[in-house]
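Key result, reporting period 2: structure in, sequence out.
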């Protein structure tokens, strides 16, 4: 697997000279660098170790003024060669570079004691002992310390052998298949156009593919690719890569822009981070402190928001938020470095745990949930990301950035979480997932809402689906609301009767006062028989207006005991069924029936006769042809 080695160390300790001695490549390409004799910008080389093993090398500047360039170069390296001059020993940037590597998650490396030809053996042994003691509590504790001289060549072969041994033992962390390349250098090449270079963090890319430069989402296409100076059709993660971009000028690209495929990164101006203040820092990190924020090859001004305390002391770790003036595009577990304004030095760092964050209230319950994002188990992280997302949920591509998992691993994890009811797929079209605990909580809330509705409106059969969506579900995405309803229907907790939803055990019932109203209404219409009372008279008897009595009328209709013939005319069901029976008996001997015929059969006056005839027409019992009726369907 391709591996990147980075250099680190104090200015003038011979990092660039050592790289040239190892590879034959001079990383100082700028005229100013050659004139001043110091490295200003990042340099790149590669070391062939035989048997097809090639190590990419990033050479970083050692001067304190260019530490931001060092951070950009150190991001993405797999191991480090710490360069310490034998005649000077450990110096300020030796310490700062080592701390930065530690903050960036570098886990292994070795030490090159340069300029070994300038000191005697006794001095060299003393420096080796000093360096070993200093490095003991760090990730370089016990690492090989190899004296070398780029001038005489002494120790160079031994150093190559140590690198070869480290490479054979090194187990690179598993990279996701999400293609990302932070641009640490941009230039124009005659005959080719604009080229960016960087260390490909993950994934792969091929010539001809569409790409975007994030966070501004500038569109382009890959015209050409080189890895370690060789032209390739496809470039893979872990290699220094140059990408020739179509249709862009150098001014269109900023250092730190991230090249990726369209729709795979999601810039945000709020990130959730796990942050550690270095023990060597003498000043606590206070809430809302403004800092220099380094991520990939980008440096921006940002502000830290502590969520569960007022300050973070040296040596302490906490989950907090960082907020930017403009959005940045990151991925879960990306490493970050914080540098103070005065003095301008690295004092804290950590990793991204929420690259698509939202502002969280301090000391709230959500702060505890943020802590779950720092878990070691990827499934636990995915479940926590879904719960924090709320009802909006997260798409599959968003979850790739928010877990840093490979696509197949994420699919499998979501399947397992789905089986455990910790994740739900509520929108198959966009592959959008929600939190299982949230879905359970919303289901319980919906059941409680329907229970309250039934108590307040006991005579209503239930709630119209549309009315439920615009009241209880108004804050939910439509497809999440639909998912909750359909799941409760499938489980049998609620019942749908056409578009009306109700709890499975709900039955229309009346309070004692409503039961009295029901008794009076039914009595009045039953007594009226073929000539029912006027609605106004019934309401006067009840001492109510129609709005107050309407629920009881509606229930009586739904129960089939009262039939509405027209706007303000109701019949007792038994009376209207008797009228219908008489009409059908007439049709048994006649093909047609006139209004006078109907009056002769029923004895109804014109006040009732015409509305009842029109009611039977509307109910498709009869059909009017001129001035007579025919039976539409013989019974």
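The corresponding designed sequence is given below.
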């Amino acid at each position: 697997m391709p591996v990147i080695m980075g250099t680190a160390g104090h200015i003038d300790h011979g990092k660039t000279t050592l790289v040239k001695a190892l590879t034959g490549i001079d990383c100082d390409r700028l005229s100013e660098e050659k004139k001043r004799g110091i490295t200003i910008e990042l340099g790149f080389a590669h070391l062939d170790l035989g048997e097809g093993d090639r190590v990419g090398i990033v050479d970083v500047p050692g001067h304190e003024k260019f530490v931001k360039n060092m951070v950009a170069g150190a991001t993405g390296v797999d191991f480090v060669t710490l360069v310490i001059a034998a005649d000077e020993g450990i110096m300020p940037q030796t310490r700062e570079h080592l701390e930065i590597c530690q903050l960036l998650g570098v886990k292994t490396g070795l030490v090159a004691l340069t300029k070994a030809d300038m000191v005697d053996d006794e001095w060299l042994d003393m420096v080796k002992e000093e360096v070993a003691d200093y490095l003991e509590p760090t990730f370089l504790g016990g690492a090989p310390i190899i004296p070398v001289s780029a001038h005489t060549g002494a120790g160079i072969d031994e150093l190559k052998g140590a690198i070869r041994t480290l490479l054979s033992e090194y187990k690179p962390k598993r990279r996701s298949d999400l293609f990302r390349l932070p641009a640490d250098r941009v230039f124009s090449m005659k005959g080719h156009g604009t080229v960016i270079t960087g260390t490909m963090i993950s994934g792969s890319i091929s010539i001809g593919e569409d790409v975007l430069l994030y966070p501004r989402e500038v569109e382009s296409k890959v015209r050409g690719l080189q890895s370690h100076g060789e032209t390739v059709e496809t470039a893979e993660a872990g290699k220094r890569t140059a990408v020739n971009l179509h249709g862009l000028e150098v001014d269109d690209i900023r250092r730190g822009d991230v090249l990726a495929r369209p729709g795979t990164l999601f810039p945000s101006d709020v990130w959730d981070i796990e942050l550690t203040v270095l023990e060597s820092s003498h000043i606590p990190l206070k809430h809302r402190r403004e800092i220099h924020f380094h991520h990939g090859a980008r440096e921006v001004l940002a502000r830290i928001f502590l969520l569960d305390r007022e300050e973070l002391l040296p040596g302490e770790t906490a989950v907090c938020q960082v907020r930017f003036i403009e959005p940045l595009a990151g991925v879960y577990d990306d490493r970050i470095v914080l540098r103070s304004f005065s003095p301008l030095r690295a004092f804290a760092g950590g990793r991204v745990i929420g690259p698509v964050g939202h502002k969280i209230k301090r000391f709230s319950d959500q702060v505890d949930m943020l802590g779950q994002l720092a878990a070691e188990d990827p499934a636990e992280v995915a479940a926590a990301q879904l719960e924090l997302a709320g009802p909006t949920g997260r798409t599959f591509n968003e979850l790739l950035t928010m877990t840093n998992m490979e696509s197949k691993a994420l699919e499998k994890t979501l399947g397992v979480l789905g089986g455990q009811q910790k994740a739900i797929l509520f929108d198959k079209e966009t592959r959008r997932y929600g939190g299982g605990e949230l879905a359970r909580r919303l289901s319980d809330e919906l059941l409680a809402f329907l229970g309250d509705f039934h108590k307040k409106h006991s005579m209503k059969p239930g709630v119209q689906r549309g009315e439920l969506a615009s009241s209880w579900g108004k804050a939910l995405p439509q497809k999440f609301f639909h998912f909750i309803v359909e799941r409760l229907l499938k489980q049998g907790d609620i019942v749908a009767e056409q578009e009306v939803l109700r709890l499975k055990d709900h039955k229309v019932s009346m309070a004692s006062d409503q039961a009295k109203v029901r008794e009076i209404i039914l009595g009045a219409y039953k007594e009226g028989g073929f000539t029912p009372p006027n609605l106004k008279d019934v309401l006067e008897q009840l001492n109510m207006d129609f709005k107050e009595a309407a629920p009881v009328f509606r229930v009586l209709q739904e129960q089939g005991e009262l039939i509405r013939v027209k706007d303000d005319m109701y019949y007792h069901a038994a009376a209207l069924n008797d009228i219908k029976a008489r009409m059908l008996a007439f049709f048994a001997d006649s093909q047609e029936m006139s209004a006078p015929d109907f009056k002769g059969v029923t004895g109804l006056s014109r006040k009732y006769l015409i509305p009842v005839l029109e009611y039977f027409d509307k109910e498709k019992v009869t059909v009017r042809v001129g001035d007579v009726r025919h039976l539409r369907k013989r019974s």
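The longest strand covers residues 317-328. The chain has a mean pLDDT of 90. This case is discussed further under Risks and Mitigation.
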